[in-house]
Amino acid sequence: MLFLILLAFSYAMFQGGFVSWFLFYSFLPFAVYCVAISFYSLKEFEVTRVLLKSDYNAGEPLKVTVKIKRLRKFPLFYLLIEDTLDDPLKYASQHQKAKALLLPGLKKEFSYEYIIDELPRGEHFFRSFTLRIGDPLGLFEKERKVPVDGKIIVYPAYSEFIYRPFENQYDQGLTASRERVQRDTTMVVGVRDYQPGDRFSWINWKATAKRNEIMTKEFEQRQSHDVFVVMDCVPDKRFEAVVSFTASLQRATLKKGAQTGLLTISKERASFPIRGGERHLQELFYHLAKIEAKCLIPLEKVLETDGLFIQHSVSFMLVTAQLTKQLVEKASFLGQRKGSITLFLIKGQKEAPAEGERSLIAIANARGVRVIMVHEGEFTAAFSEVNLR
């Protein structure tokens, strides 16, 4: 910049005349402004990101307010600011962009907002802001990254439906109870450690006083309504629908009063024991928010390695978007050893089953494996009277 000033001055001196001096004096303010910007420190900027909340559901909009403060007044021609987003948020639909061009002038405080229309499921981190200033002619530019950490968790979208146990071990055939699951509290067979979700009336006060820990009565269960879910994490275009249905199923089961567990194998194996209560639901939803479709082995292999450890007294449910002959055979074998097996086949909206899938469904039903086809956006039909057959 100093070289350009000297060059313009030399041109005016040697050339002379009105035009050369006019060019020099016209260029001089811009040059002086560039020199002033070079000495202006961007470290005096304080950037704050304001999020209305930290927990969202997939598909919700996100509104972010960015507030900027600086210590001194200095005439800034423009300030280009960009919030550094991770890839899922960066490629999501944005009503107002995370990158904004501001004209602060002499203001010491100013702000802008941006909106992400539909949040994708996952745990998203905000790292920093990129600030950039310059002169009107674009001759000089200055940039700095300002670290401002932030995080939001986007839980999977879920649908409200009523969970109905498919089988009743007392009666012959199939029943679907609309009543809340009740445990048989007439026969106490022992005590166990307290778990979140246990009722206050189940606490055994004598055992609690003796052991100095809260102990709960263990009742004889004539019929178990507990559910253990295995979710397929193989890459598939319908994986988000698989996660969403799994979340809906877990929530409906716990809301019914039963207990539920979950097994997923993605980059790592994750198993949640069968429990109840709001805290357990939060743990399940947090896991489902972060799960990715990165399983390298098919679901039938997962059942082969982990299925033998499933308890006998629970309903065993599989959630997948891919139905294969090997999966039907493994589920049938597991059903002979464990009892109730239900397989939910997730399909896209208005997606019809392939001819091979129709025959596999018939084979599965003949072997005692209940296969229920669930379309994306129609999860409430999974436990409707139509599917209870």
Notes on the protein architecture:
This protein is an alpha/beta fold. The protein folds into two domains: about 110 residues, C2 domain (Immunoglobulin-like); about 160 residues, 3-Layer(aba) Sandwich (Rossmann fold). The protein contains nine helices and 17 strands. The strands form four sheets. A six-stranded mixed beta sheet has the order 14-13-12-15-16-17, sandwiched between helices. A five-stranded mixed beta sheet has the order 2-9-8-4-6. Strand 8 and strand 9 form a beta hairpin. Helix 7 packs parallel to helix 8. The protein is elongated, with a radius of gyration of 31 Å. About 30% of the residues are buried. The C terminus is likely disordered.
Compact summary:
This protein is an alpha/beta fold and 389 residues long. It is built from nine helices and 17 strands.
From the coordinates shown, what is the CATH architecture of the largest domain? 3-Layer(aba) Sandwich
Radius of gyration: 31 Å
The separation of the N and C termini measures: 82 Å
Assess the beta-strand content as a share of residues.
25-35%
In CATH, the homologous superfamily of the largest domain goes by the name von Willebrand factor, type A domain
Fold-level CATH name of the largest domain: Rossmann fold
The number of domains is 2
Shape: elongated
The helix/strand class is alpha/beta
Number of strands: 17
Provide the residue-averaged pLDDT. Answer: 83
Low-confidence stretches: 168-180, 385-389
Largest sheet, if any? 6 strands, mixed
Written as H for each helix and E for each strand, in order along the chain, the element string is: HHEEEEHEEEEEEHEEHEEHHEHEHE
- Strand neighbour order, sheet with most strands: 14-13-12-15-16-17
Class of the largest domain in CATH?
Alpha Beta
Q: Helical content, roughly?
A: 25-40%
Q: Number of helical segments?
A: 9
